[in-house]
Each structure stands twice: as structure tokens, then as C-alpha cells.
Amino acid sequence: MRSRDPVDPTGPAAAPAGSPAPPGRLRAQRRPPAALVVPAAVAAMFALLPLGYLAVRSLERGPGFAWDVVANERTALLLGRSLGLAAVVVTVSLVLGVSLAWLTVRTALPGARVWSVLVTLPLAVPSYVAAFAWLSAFPALAGFTGSALALTLVSFPYVYLPVTAALRGTDPAQEEVARSLGLGPLRTFVRVTLPQLRPAAAGGAVLVALYVLSDFGAVSLMRYDTFTRGIYTSYRASFDRTPAAALSVVLVVMTVALVALEARTRGRAGHARTGTGTARRAVPAPLGRLRVPALLWCGAVTTIAVVIPLGTLGYWLAVGNSATWDPAGLLDTAGTTLGVAAGGAALTTLLALPVGVIAARYRGRAAHLLEQSAYAGHALPGITVALALVFFAVRYAEPLYQRLPLLVCAYAVLFLPVSVAATRAAVLQAPPVLEDVARSLGRSPLRVLREVTVPLAAPGVAAGAALTFVVCMKELPATLLLRPTGMDTLATRLWTETGTGSFAAAAPYAAALILLAALPSYLLGRHRT
Fold it and tell me: Which of these, 228, 289, 337, 472, could form a disulfide with 381 (CB 3.0-4.6 Å)?
């Protein structure tokens, strides 16, 4: 098979002037075209917008004051608490996500299609709903344990989904050879399958870490101080925004470090098929004596992550009555939630597409910088992003202030990495040779993107859009600050009722939020079965 050698005596040197370059030459190019760089740069600038606000606010009283805030003992305590919580949640999420993906995709697990849908349903449960459910049932969980439990149970699908996609896209021949040589399912998984899943698992892990660092609802209900709760307290306690901005800068630094670590873990390996032949489904590995433990494992995870929160909501729904329910208000709020989340998902996917393509197809400092920039807003708490957008809207785009587009923009800043990760994974699965052939036939980079790359990656991009839609529906702090006057979403109504102790009145909004988010979560599960 011909390797991609840029020096070919029968290739570019022999081609007449003005003729299209052959595929080998095109695949050797490492600089992304302007048709991708310009929209990717716009997306990066959009994601970096809150950093401009932080630079202005954190240095407003001089670098010395900002350093005093960052270097004090409380900041170190918040840093240790946040990193410790993130480390625990990421570790457990990797164990849950990778093991469940392997069981549902690569083994003869009874009811694998059903399990694959059930384990994606926690995506429909907001972290603050999960925290409320566990806290109301077991008050002693308040603190680190309850925060770690609630956040793990709602975030492990961020690992499960990309790992499942990677398992379905990789060639099963190596695993079959390993089993034919006498390795059992577990040893084959550890020695052969797991190394191939490293990029997908690393991408999911960084999303989980960023989710934990930016979470506000669960840690607030569990009364566990992290950076997000510390920033919120600082904003509420004083009109001086400098301390909170300085704390937010620390979160940005942690975000950059996490993304850089994920990039090193991912490596430079390609993941598309380059040889001859056609893709085929793997022959499920028999579980043997592991069958019963595997079923118990799947059942335990589903029960803890889905059944208990839903059971708690069912209790509060049963306690409630017609005096605490408002069906007309519930329907109106649900419609508003769907519309805002759809707008946020559409804008986020549009901004993420060029960034994801560049991250998957090109190497170099510029490509790396664009990808890292897209992650900047994800670890920032929603309140910081919201105040940054208010700051710029009041000064430079006043017509947007207190308007719906500003809220949609906040969703795009917060959740751009979710869509970028899905797009990058989908493009990595598409054979690059097809794009090279289209370029060799005279297609411009923009036409290649529109006619080849996007159609090939469309299922993965759509899955990313559905995932973004789910997280937009669940977003709370930015929605609380940026929603137009008189507008409510299910999340804000749920938070308002919970804050006043009206748990029975809050239950219908929580149930509606879960039901609406469950549909795209179900489709995500079916997409991978």
C-alpha cells in the first residue's frame, strides 16, 4: 500500500502547471485553509470573550491586589477541594463509562441494546436534581461525598458515549486474534482494546473534569465549597467584582492545563481505516462466568443513577396536589425551555464545526491554539460567563441586553467544547483520503467541507448537537442572570421552588425537565446500538 509520501517522481513534479495536486500531496499539507481558519477563529474569539472581561476586572485594582486574592489561604483550600472533587469524579466516571461501553458493544451481554439506552439516561438528570434527590433521601451525604456521588452519576455518560463510538469504529480483528490465541474477554480488553480507546476516553474525561469544575447547582445544594461556589459567594457578598474575577482566572488556568494534558494523552495516532476491505461488526465476546456479575454491574449503575432520583421525584409528585401545581405555567415554561435550548444547540454546533475539523485533520501550533481556545469558557462558572456578556452588551451591544440572543450566546460559550469534542471524534472516524480525492478533482476547501467532510461526520455531529441540546436545557446560573424579564425555564423555576422549600411544587418542573431531556438522551443511546 502506498504511504503518504510527499516526494513522488510521478506526482506533483510531473504535473502540468495549474493542475490539481494528487491526493498524496494534499494529505501532506498541515496548514488549514482560510475557509476553516476564519470561522474557527471567530468561534475561538467568541469563547475567549469572558477572558477579556476577567482581564479587565481582575486587574482593575492592580496586579498586587489580584495576586493577594489568588495567593491567600482560602484560594488554596478551594483549589484543593475543586481538584480533589474533579479527580474522584473523573476516575469513577472512567471506570463506569469504559466498562459499560465495553460490555454493551463488545460482549454478548443480554439486553445490550436496552442497557445502552438506560446508561445514557443520566444525561437527562441535572446535577442539582440528582443532588436534591440524594440529599432528601440521605441528608448525611451533604458535603464532599454527596457532591462526588451526584456529579459522577450525571457525568459518566460523557465518557461512555465517545468510548462507545470508538469501539464501533475500530477494527475488531485485533481483538478476535487475541481471543483466538487464548486470551479471555477481560485480558483481551486490557491488553488490546483499552489502548485503542485512549483518545476517546481522554476526551470524555476532560469534559467530565470541566463539568465538575464549572458545576454550581450540585455543590451548592450539598453545601460543599468549591471555586464556583466561592465565586458566587464573592459576587453576592460585595459590589467589588475583582476578587471573584481573580478566582475565575485560576479556573481558566486549570482549564488550559487540563486541555493540554488531554492533548498529550490523546497522542498523534490516527483512527480511520486505511487498508482495504469493508467495516464489519465485531463478533460479541462470550462472557462466561462474568455474565451474572456484568448484569449486576449494569443493574446497579442504572438503579443508582436513574431509578433512585426518579423515585424521589415520584414521591414528591405524589405528595403534591392541585394547589401546588400550575399546568398552564408548566407547559409554557417547557415550550420556552425547548426553544432556548434549540437555539443554543444550533449556534454551538455551527461554531464548533470548523474547530472540530481543524482539531481532527491538522497539526501545528495554530490548530492546537484554536482547539484550546474553544475550551476556555467551559470551566468558567455560568455566573462569570453571564456577567462577562452583560459587561460587553452594556458597553458595546446595548440592544442585546436583557434579550434572548444574549442567553443563547452564553450557552454557546459554555458548551462549545461538548460539540467540538463530538465533531472532532466524528471527523477522525471519516477516511481523510476521500477529502484528498475531492481536492484533487478541483474542489475548494469549503466545498470539500460541505460535500465530503460534513456528510461523513454528520451522525457524530448530530449526536454532539443532541448532547448540547440536553446540557443547554439543564443550565442554571447563566440562565438565572441573562433570561429576559418575565421569562422562566424549567431549570430556573425548579431552582426558585426548591430555594423556598416548596419541593412538591418543584417536582413537576423537575419531572418535565427530565422527560424532555430523556428523549435526546434516548436517541443518543439508540444511535450507538
Answer: 228
Distance CA 521, CA 525 (A): 6
Instruction: Flag whether 275 is in a domain.
Output: no
How does the average pLDDT of the chain come out, rounded?
A: 79
Residues facing residue 107 across a β-bridge: 285
Please give the DSSP secondary-structure letter assigned to residue 452.
I
pLDDT value, residue 406 = 92
Distance CA 407, CA 226 (A): 25
Q: Specify the DSSP element, H or E, that contains 31.
A: none
Closest to 524 in 3D by CA, of 103, 116, 184:
116
Total domains, the chain:
1
Instruction: Quote the cell numbers at residue 191.
Output: 491488553
Give a yes or no: residue 41 inside a domain.
yes
Give which of 480, 485, 472 is closest to 513, Cα–Cα.
472
pLDDT given for residue 60 in this prediction: 76
- Within 168-261, strands assigned E span none
Identity of the residue numbered 91: T
Q: What is the DSSP letter of 16?
A: P
Amino acid at 73: E
Cα distance between residue 361 and residue 27, in whole Å:
9
Contacts of residues 30-35 at CB distance under 8 Å and 24 or more positions apart, as own/partner, are 30/362, 30/363, 30/364, 31/362, 31/364, 31/366, 32/357, 32/358, 32/361, 32/362, 32/366, 32/367, 33/445, 33/446, 34/445, 35/444, 35/445, 35/446, 35/449
**HSE value, Cβ hemisphere, 13 Å, CA-based, for 2:** 13
DSSP-based helix, strand, coil % in the chain, nearest 5: 75, 0, 25
Range of the domain at 314: 32-270+288-527
Q: Nearest-CA neighbor of 497 among 307, 326, 248, 362?
A: 326
Are residues 266 and 203 in contact, defined by beta-carbon separation less than 8 angstroms? yes
Q: Please answer whether residues 524 and 123 qualify as being in contact, where contact means their C-beta atoms are separated by less than 8 angstroms.
A: yes
Work out the average pLDDT over 163-173. 76
For 484, the grid coordinates are: 429576559
C-alpha distances in angstroms, 271 versus 166, 192, 278, 492, 493? 9, 15, 15, 42, 44
**Contact residues for 417 (Cβ-Cβ < 8 A; gap 6+):** 207, 210, 374, 375, 378
The pLDDT value given to residue 349:
93
Is 240 contained in some domain?
yes
pTM exceeds cut of 0.70: yes
Is pLDDT of 293 > 80?
yes
Residue 417 is assigned to a structural domain of this protein: yes
Instruction: Convert 102-123 to b/e letters by CB count within 10 Å (16 or more is b).
Output: bbbbbbebeebeebbbbbbbbb
b vs e for 425-459, b when ≥16 Cβ sit within 10 Å of the residue's Cβ?
Answer: bbbbbbebbbbbbbbbeebebeebbeebbbebbee
Query: Residue 339 and residue 117: Cα distance in Å, rounded?
Result: 25
State which H helix or E strand residue 362 sits in. Answer: none
- In CATH, what number is assigned to the domain containing residue 88? 1.10.3720.10
